[in-house]
Amino acid sequence: MQIERVLVVDDEMLMREFLSETLARAGCEVTLASNGTEACRLLAEGKVFDFVMTDIKMEGAGGLEVLAQAKACCPRMLVVLMTAHATLDTALQAMRSGAFDYLTKPITAEQVDVLLSKAAAYRTLLEENRFHRRTALCTDDGFEDIVGRSEPMKAVFKLIEKVASSSATVLVSGESGTGKELVARAIHRRSPRQDKPFIRVNCAALPETLLESELFGHEKGAFTGASERRPGRFELAHTGTLLLDEIGETTLALQSKLLRVLQEREFERVGGTKTLKVDVRVICTSNRDLKKAIAEDLFREDLYYRLNVVPIHMPPLRERAGDLPMLADYLLRKYAERHGKPSAQLTAAVREALCEHTWPGNVRELENAIERGVILNDFSFLPSRKSDLDGMTEHGVKVPYGSAEFASVSEGHDINGTNFLPEVERRVILRTLQQEQGNRTQAARILGLSVRTLYSKLREYEVLDASGAGLLKAAV
What we know:
The protein is α/β, with parallel strands linked by helices and 476 residues long. The protein has three domains: 116 residues, Rossmann fold (3-Layer(aba) Sandwich); 163 residues, P-loop containing nucleotide triphosphate hydrolases (Rossmann fold); 137 residues, Helicase, Ruva Protein, domain 3, CATH 1.10.8. It is built from 19 helices and twelve strands. The strands form three sheets. Strands 2-1-3-4-5 form a five-stranded parallel beta sheet, with helices on both faces. A five-stranded parallel beta sheet has the order 7-8-11-6-12. α10 crosses α12, α13 crosses α15 and α17 crosses α18.
């Protein structure tokens, strides 16, 4: 982030002129003050500077007073103290008071250039941290969160690998919930910009006026509530990647401004006149059919072709059904770990219910369903023709997800490799009978069995009396 506005405070005219010329050559807008009192007045009037260079010893207010006034007006303002009489005590006092740096006169042009670079890097870091705290951005490592082995997903992975090393603009299309943002993050993680900022803005979440300010930043007083100058997402993403999420929701007026940034790599802040240049790799996503939007005069055709340099289409979950079991297992592990639940596997009936659903909300809907099931220890809410889906053994007996029996049934074998599903089933049936105090009709309903099947199981377990009508007390 470039240092633009600098206040120079010094009672020596030659020093003011030297610093003014050096800073102007570096592209800074310089304001001069001949003493600390004048500088404090400028700051108190609301003048905002990126950088302040002030002498320490002056008549009236000194450099430390200027530093205090600057920090009171804008805590993020960077202040450098200068002196011809350096001592360890004054240096320590300056740094303890919040000075960005401390220079001893005479000062060279090279020192000023190094100082500006250092200050620009520091301001960039501050703004990035500020942005990340506001948005709580998450990161992922490559394809970690993009799960799939189907042919459509293999094609997506191949495109990501090919395009990542370039700076080409990418347009990721697909229905809501298909994982478009994950694709953008994977491209960034594999690009030469991977150590630079990854900044995201949701174009559908903000009205046009606020979105323009978010993208390009604004100057102090540009609109009501603009109490200070703020950089936009393009500035924050400088040298990195900017994700414009749901680009199809922007207005035609904003689209024309985006087109200029993509073509010229320059823009002005809202309420500002200075042109800023940026080096940003842009990735866009859209769940809308942009060609249809063009036909309806809702999206600029020239912007579409500027964005659609490399198109990547994320297939809906219904077109990659083969990935569903793998996705479900991955999400089950993810949310069991996140919520501190015991690890387990989905039973055949739950898997069947997952496969029966068309998932109009795609992976996001599946993810929400798995997380809900893990938290509740119950998958009976799944949309299915089946009525009991907490967890089912292959023999048709309902077993609560997360229970000891669930884990056993999911594995199906003991440590010696012997199939013991019948024994698990027997334990579940007898325990249910015991809980229902021998009421076989109620137990059959809970177990998801017909009364006839339950009778058959009980005869098999030899827990009915000789007449076949009553339960043996010892069995229950």
